[in-house]
Amino acid sequence: MGMYDFFFDPDSTCPKCMSPVNREWQTQRLDGLFEHWKKGDLLQYHKYELIPEEERRTKWGGWKFPTTYRVNEEFVKDEPLLPGGMVPVYTMCDGCSAWLNAYAKISDGKFLGIVEVEPSEEEKEFIKIKPETTAAILHSEFEKRLSHLQESCRHINAAWTSLDQEAHPNVKRKFCLRCEKVLEVVAYGRTSKGRKRSKRGH
After folding, report:
1. Residue 152 zone, left/alpha/beta (φ > 0; ψ -120 to 50; rest)
2. Per-residue model confidence as pLDDT tens digits over 9-61
C-alpha cells in the first residue's frame, strides 16, 4: 500500500447515478505526502514544522503517540509540481458504490477541478502538459545563454570576415570562433589622397 495525495471538488458527480461525490479523490502519481488540494489551490506541498513542546503537551500530552509535526502555510517551493496536465485520481461513489476514475485538471500550476469521470476500475494515463512556449521566450533564453558564454569566453581563436559586400563593401569584422562575439570592426573608406582606415574594437 502506497502513500496518497488528495483532491476535493464539491462539483464532481458520479456519471452512473448522478449523485454528488462528497469524498476526496486519491492519487498515487505524485510524491504521496498526504497533501490535500481544493479547487484553485497551487499544486505544491506545504512545509511541516515541529510543534513546540509546551503546546504539544497541552493538546496531546495524554496520548501514547502524540503528534509531533504540523503543516504550516509555506510551500516547499514557489513553483508548482506540475505547470499543466491531468493527474489520474480515483474514489468510490457513496450513492451507488461504483468505483470511479477521473482526472484532476491542472492549469497554470493550480488545481481547477475533477474532469472526465468514468465508472471504471482502470486508472487513467498521467498527462503532463508543457507550458506554452513562444518564439519570444526561445529568443530570450538563447540571448541569456549566449551572453553568459561570451562573458566567460577567453576568445582564443578568432577570424576575420567581410560584411555584406553590397551594403558594406569596405567593412570587416573580427569575431570569436567559439562564442561568435564581435571583437573588432575595421572600416575602409576612400579619400582624395587614397585609402583611409578606421578601427573600432568591442
Report:
1. alpha
2. 999 999 999 999 999 999 999 999 999 999 999 999 999 888 887 777 777 77
Q: How far is CA 174 from CA 107, 179, 185, in A?
A: 48, 12, 6
Q: What are the sequence ranges of the domains in the chain?
A: 5-44+79-128, 156-202
HEC profile for the chain?
A: CCCCEEEECCCCECCCCCCECCCCEEECCCCCCCCEEECCCECCCEEEEECCHHHHHHHHCCCCCCCCEEEEEEECCCCCCCCCEEEEEEEECCCCCCEEEEEEEEECCEEEEEEEEEECCCCCCCEECCCCCCHHHHHHHHHHHHHHHHHHCCCCCEEEEECCCCCCCCEEEEEECCCCCEEEEEEEEEECCEEEEEEEEC
pLDDT in tens, 166-197: 666 678 889 899 898 999 888 865 433 334 44
Burial of 143 from C-beta contacts in 10 A (0-12 / 13-18 / 19+): exposed
- Yes or no: say if 92 and 98 are a contact pair by the CB < 8 Å rule: yes
Q: Which residue has the cell 551572453?
A: 147
Cell of residue 183, nine digits: 571583437
